[in-house]
Fold these 4 entries.
Entry 1:
Amino acid sequence: MNCVRFMSSLNPTSVVAATPVVYEPPSAPTSNVKNVDRRMEVTLGFPKDITATIVCDLGVPYTFGLVPTIPKIMLLVEGELGSLEFFNFVMPTFYHSITIKIKGGHTRVEKVYKDTEGNGEEWWSTYRFQLEALVDHIRGREPEVWLEKQDSVDNMEWVEKVYEKVRVYFILGDKLEMLTLKKCSPDLGADRNQPI
């Protein structure tokens, strides 16, 4: 959520769609309450007809059933002139790439392990940069990047709006297949005659 908001410099205007996959432990008892999502796919609406889709899956299957799969952490921005793909923006110290593709033309791949004008070392993690920004802020210096507390509040508000959208999945669970709610009680948060 934070990455999409940061890269667009906008707050969403709506949760267009949201689909969870509920976590089911392999040896869950029959009394297991299915109220934890393992995967969530969300489409957010933004001003100027911009949309963003977020897919988060905490249950990536093992390769050959034995070897843990490396998670795919990436941001893809598509525009009129081309696209930008930022691979592994969460922990770029280990490996990352920034791929810029111009429609009908040039593709460029960059890796930036140290900013030529800023602080830091190639081996610094994103967490180290956050710590340096905090120290700068506390000591009255201007950090390279500083997020105000409202940014965190906005992130959580939009995460909550996503869960409001999918709340019925966790209430009805398995009974939701092919279901269209014709009449809902107000506590379900759905409008009358609105398909889910």
Entry 2:
Amino acid sequence: MKTNCFLLIAVVGLLAGCYTPTRKDVYTYRNDVGQGIDLITDNELESNADKNSLVWLNASRIRQGTWGGRYFLEVRYEALQNTGWLDIGPGQTLTLTVDADTLRLKGPGSINTRRETGSGTVVENAIYETNEDTLRKIAKATQVKVVVQGKSRTIERDFRPENNRKFKNFVLTYIGF
């Protein structure tokens, strides 16, 4: 009996050591005073062609009630100082081609979010209010193309499987299909 018990403990210990939890792509932030926020972070849109800048497209929900909320897409741009700012202005500066549909989103631009980092890069963020249906459409898509129009230049990126997975996870966790 003792031998069987030790064998069982050894097998369970071995299996537990091989288990790696899935990476969490969506996060929830709650505080005691305000509304909670659910978000995708670090959804980098990689590019083989453009090595001068990094672009992320993140999603968030500011909770209102149990399931309701206000939904946003956030573009984050980072580049070396010699590459310079993208300079996202106010207006219709984010275009998403989701399968065959073109979605144009407008926002206040990035003027109040621009900063230089201590490591020699420039960072700017632009927020675009959206809705549940747009996020569902992105999550269900087989192909998503992102175009960010700045005053300095235009950045284009395509979703990779990792980006699709993060949006599906966000929608399944916080909105539902």
Entry 3:
Amino acid sequence: MVYLLCSTKCFFMENTKPQQAGSRPEQALEDIRQMMERSSRFISLSGLSGVAAGICALGGSWVAGEMIQSYYGSYNSRGFFTGDDFSRLKIKLIGLALIIFILAFCSSFYFTWRRAKKQGVSLWGPVSKRVFWNMMVPLIAGAGFILGMLRYDEWSFVSSACLLFYGLALINASKYTVTDIRYLGYCQIILGLVNMFFIGYGLYFWAAGFGVLHILYGLIMWKKYEKEAS
């Protein structure tokens, strides 16, 4: 009887060991992969950040359109433009752009901070710093280029430059975050290049790039990385 019990125990131990041995290495490899990914890439970007930024951009585009219509409406009522009219329009549009940037940045920061907190990841660590600086270099260069054009009242390619430099910034930053962001960068660059051949429709291209594409990208990212977790 004792021999039978011992034989049965040995039989079950032999049959369960391979399964445990097979599952543990796989889990260990998955844990190592996640640790390496977290140490080399900032993966806490939230898709809702893109949605919020896109909504802010669409709202800003609508307000900018109203400002431009009012500017041309004054011409229709008086029959001429003045230098002061254009200067006021320029100041209004630059101020609006700053407000939209602040709103989009704050909303994006909030959703990314919230996701990083859930994941237990530092929002301002070595990897996130690399993402920040790799994105800021093209953005700062683009801002300088655009301000130079505005200095000489060259508005024709402002929206194109915004899209092109922003797309370059996304591609440059994608080395240290989710790779999906580079596809948004490619789309922004393509849209900016097309916009160069349709000068009078810059506001529509700007709204499509910073508004519609951001919302679509954000929804795709949320569904891919965050929906199941939430």
Entry 4:
Amino acid sequence: MRKILTLSMFLLAAPAYASEAAAEKTNLMSPNTGLMFWTLVIFVALWIILSRYAFKPITAAVEAREAALRDAIETAKRDRDEAALLLLQHRAKIEEARGEAQRFIAEARAAGEKVKSHMLEETKAQQQEMLDRARREIEAERDRAIAQLRREAVELAISGAEKVIERNLDSEANRKIVETFLASIPASKPDRASR
């Protein structure tokens, strides 16, 4: 490469030496054939040297650069297309995830409503059961109170009858007579009085 540069410098300097000798006699408007000849010879020689040694590597470098740029552009286009495809896929997955989340929320709401209604039904059933149990207990207490009152009424009736008759009858027989009498009395009368 040094040889090429040295030779090209020498060839470029030759017209300058030739023009110094002719500079004294030349006019700018008049053609100088010697100068034109040497300029043409130097141009052709320089063209041949550059085409053999410089133009091919420069053209190859430019073509390699163009090919690299084309490849880079193609790669960029391909990457952009892949990125666009990935973006579409991600958006589709996000939409799918949103739909699934909405479905989960709807299912959770439905399950919550179902549990709520089930709990309300259970609470109402328990409440009804408690009311029924309270009614049964109240009726049982009322029946016990009525029975207790009957026993006391029998005792009072027997005591009163003993004093009226003034003789002591068999208390067991008297009790049976009074209980039979009280049992013959309809049970609805004490219910009306208790209400």
